Amino acid sequence: MVSAIIFDLDGTIADSTGCVVDAAQHVQRELACRPVSDEDIRSRIGEPLAPMLAALFGVDGEVLAHAVKSYSARYVEVAQHRERPFSEAVPMLRRLRAAGFKLAIATGKSQNGAERATQRMGIADCFDTVHGIVPGTPGKPDPAVLCRAMAALDAKAPECVMVGDTTFDMDLAHAVGVRTAAVTWGVHSRRRLAATHPGIVVTDFGALEAWLMGLSG
């Protein structure tokens, strides 16, 4: 029986793709890096920030460190106005909690970024625990952040579901034997998600909630 549901944040619960694209394009302009398309950026959402920027712009060392700082500052700026939960997310989360599920976030954002984002969007109280990447630990698709969330919920792999919008979310869950739900309203296409063999691929919050509720018995 499933008792714990662990959600990715960006593209799954939060409509924040535009913020990521804006911040990355800001880096390109500020550092005069090679140009990249918005689709190039979207395809890498979910990766740890430094490797994502290094791959996008072909930078390393001090330039990469500058890029990370520039991106982070810009993201915080634009997120104040543009980052928000999907309209159906919060009602679903509250119904899942009322049904007795334990809920957590496992995101590729930094731990501080994850905590700030959930507080800023007014959704922190929807979750029992919030987890991002902490210094010295790997980012997605390494399952470290998921394992921390599971430990905080005191839940074993057979009791958990990971919900996400990227193949990174599916891969990290499969690595530790956690079942998966892939959502198509984020950044990776249905075909790309299906190739990772998730437990289900859903196209709307209603279908996601119905599937999750069905796992409780």
Structure write-up:
The structure is a single chain. With 217 residues, the protein is α/β, with parallel strands linked by helices. The protein folds into two domains: 4-15 and 84-213, HAD superfamily/HAD-like (Rossmann fold), CATH 3.40.50; 17-82, Putative phosphatase, domain 2 (DNA polymerase, domain 1, Orthogonal Bundle). It has helices spanning 17-31, 38-43, 49-57, 61-82, 89-98, 111-120, 144-153, 167-175, 190-194, 205-213; strands at 4-7, 14-15, 84-85, 102-110, 129-133, 160-164, 179-183, 200-202.
Summarize the structure.
The chain has 217 residues and is α/β, with parallel strands linked by helices.
Tell me the span between the first and last alpha carbons.
6 Å
Order of adjacent strands in the largest pleated sheet: 5-4-1-6-7-8
CATH topology of the largest domain: Rossmann fold
Q: For this structure, what is the CATH homologous superfamily of the largest domain? A: HAD superfamily/HAD-like
Report the total helices: 10
Helix content range: 40-55%
Q: What fraction of the residues are assigned to beta strands by DSSP? A: 15-25%
How many beta-strand segments?
Answer: 8
Order of helix and strand elements from N to C terminus: EEHHHHEHEHEHEHEHEH
The largest β sheet comes out as: 6 strands, parallel
Average pLDDT taken over every residue? 95
CATH class of the largest domain: Alpha Beta
Classify the secondary structure makeup into a structural class: alpha/beta
Show unreliable segments.
none
The CATH architecture of the largest domain comes to 3-Layer(aba) Sandwich
Please state the oligomeric state of the protein chains shown.
single chain
Number of domains: 2
Shape: globular
Could you tell me the radius of gyration in angstroms?
17 Å
